[in-house]
Every structure is written in C-alpha cells, then in structure tokens.
Amino acid sequence: MENNLTPENEFSQPTPEPTAEAAVAPDTAVPFAARTDLSALSRHAEAIRQQLSKVIVGQQALAELLLTAILADGHILLEGVPGVAKTLTAKLLARTLDVPFSRLQFTPDLMPSDVLGTSIFRPNKAEFEFRPGPIFASIVLIDEINRAPAKTQSALFEVMEERQVTQDGTRYAVPEPFVVLATQNPIEQEGTYRLPEAQLDRFLFKLHVGYPTVEEEIAILQGHHAGFGGTPLEAVQAVLSADDLRSLREQVRRQHVEPKLLEYIARVVGQTRAHKGLYLGASPRASLALLNGAKALAALRGRDFVTPEDVQYLAAPVLRHRIQLTPEREMEGSTPDDIVKQILQQIEVPR
Length: 351
Hints:
CATH architecture of the largest domain: 3-Layer(aba) Sandwich
Strand content: 15-25%
CATH class of the largest domain: Alpha Beta
Largest sheet: 5 strands, parallel
CATH topology of the largest domain: Rossmann fold
Helix content: 40-55%
Number of helices: 14
Mean pLDDT: 84
C-alpha cells in the first residue's frame, strides 16, 4: 500500500494569515509546540530499530508496523512465503523486550492443553494443581499458526481477547504485557487449517512480509559470504522493560484525536459492511484497532495527535484479514487491499 503521508498536517495549530513580518523573515516562525513529550518513546523506538538492523536487512516499514502494534497493545499476524525471515523477525523483536518469551510450533496433533497448560493431581496434597502452559509469557511466538486444528485454535480465543485462561472454573491471568506474534504461509495447503474469522478478528494487524529488493538481497549474500551469516541472536540486547512499555502505552492512549477523525474511522469501517464487493464487513473491533493503531503510529512519528494519513496508512493492515470478498470479486482477481483502497477513495477526508 502506498504511503500517503505528507509533511504537512491539518490537525496542528491553524496556519495564520501571512503577514508582512512573516514574509520578510519566514525562518522566525514558531514551530508547533507538542502537548506531550515523546522523546522517551522516540528514543526507545530507535533503540529497537537499531537492534533489529543488526540482523534484518531492510524491512523498515515492517519494523515500524511491528512497533506500532506493540505500542497499541495488539496481536500481530505475519504472512509470507518461507524464507523471508518471519520467525526470525518475531524472535528478534521479542529479544529487544526484557519480558518473558515463549515459542510454540503449531502442528496438526497439538492439543489445547499443550498451549494453555493442564491440571496435575498432587497425591501429597490430595488436590489438583494447575501447571501453566507456554501461553503464559509476555511475548508468545506461534509459528505456522494455521497448522493446528480448530480445537486448538479455539483455545486461543479467550486468552487473546481477555488476557486470561479459564481452567476447571478458575481464571489465571497471563503476564502483562501480553502479545501474540503468529506466522503463517499463504501458499501452503497440505496439513493446514483455515483460521476462524473470530480468531482473525483478534489480531490487530495482518502484515505481509514480502521478498527483499535486489539491493537488500545482495547485502544478505555479502554478509553470509563474509562468514558470519548475520549477527547471532545473542548480539541483540533487550532495550525496553515491561515497566517502560506500560508507560509508553499509557502515553499512546492519551494521544489527541479530533472528533471528525473518529467519524472518519467509523465511516471507513462502516463502508466495508455496505460495499458490494464484500459479503463480510469489519466489526466495531476493527474501528477500535484502527484508532489505537493510528495513535501509536502518530507517536512513533513524533506527533501527539492523529491525522487522516495515519488512518489511511493503517487501513489495509487492520482490515485485510477482517473482510471477505464475494466470489465474483475473487474471480476477477481483486484482493482485500484493493477494496480497502477503493473505500478510502470514496470517503471524504476530513480537513
């Protein structure tokens, strides 16, 4: 999706009428005064980018969207063909955060108890004791999530939405923060299961991981030929603690949003329910995801207010996995991103 961001912003302070003084000395104009100090957030974000760049070549847009989702307290679904560093990127991102991490390799024989945990009988206490599963971590990497059957997929519904697991009538909270990073291969069909719509809706973003450019692939080959094959994972250091992340998320939640932008988000998402090319539109959860994501993206880009460009930039990652095309549109070769682009063109942008 094209980046429609512009350097100007209609939601900053109104531009005053030109004066003779301004015409003589334009360099003396007073810059926009931010309402919130975002220096700490920018510093942490840059530190994470530097750590990721030790191993990953290119993928700057992907890194920005990953950071946006982390700040917006959302789960991420990474989709791409094998070999484009989906799992590696997720592991590196987890290493930059000083929080508990676990990895799950989904397979067709995986059971819900393998994910959530199970109750074990203790004879000395004559009672059952719950042993937490690998889902009880702050960053949970689920590799090839579409390889597990529906029974195991449904085990993720509660924990991804409510951040808790219910076992034998008792609720167990997962650590805070809690983020699921899942990967899947879009072309492989053998031994895979389609993710339920209810589960897809729980992911904040669905991100496409594409092939590197020729220049980026040359850099990858040069590094491998030099003998190191990329920096080892151990060289990536944790630069953000759980307390720091909670503080940054609270700052993101306080981002300024104009009322007409809230209406714009509602119109964009609402249009997915009326578009003739779709038989499944997005729910209000998509509106919330678009709002929270836009707040985080604006903060990453050094602004304490959201613009229409932020909403437009995130519309495809937020909506592409929440809408479904009609069979006629699929036969024509249309994609969800094409429909989202059409919707954005049809709705008037607030100014």
